[in-house]
Prior knowledge:
Elements: H1 2-21, H2 23-32, H3 45-58, H4 65-78, E1 83-90, E2 95-102, E3 105-106, H5 113-116, E4 118-122
Antiparallel strand pairs: 1-2, 1-4, 2-3
Amino acid sequence: MRRVVESWILLLYFDGLMHFHGFPRIHAVVRAQQLRPASGVQESDRELSHAVDLACVFYFKPVLCLQRSAATTVLLRRHGWNAEMVIGAQLLPFRSHAWVEINGRVVNDKPYIAEIFQVLERC
Length: 123
């Protein structure tokens, strides 16, 4: 439950950043989040990603993929995982999407998502 609350607070934080400062600020915050060494028993990346998913259910409005991926990346890094937020685009029809990877493995979306979208940025 503690990780769900922590995730919900991160969702709120990134929602505020998006609303008041836009994508550049979210990008800068995620890029600046340092990997913290895991202390004690390290929670699995799946457990932490699931905590963000649960926080999305309890969030007061729909959560966008950028907000969710930024929160997931920061949460994972805070708990010892070398996570990257990935931003991709598809040309026809035009769509953009964000997801999280650890060592090239998608952790918060469908495993084939990287095949659908052309990667534009990793941070």
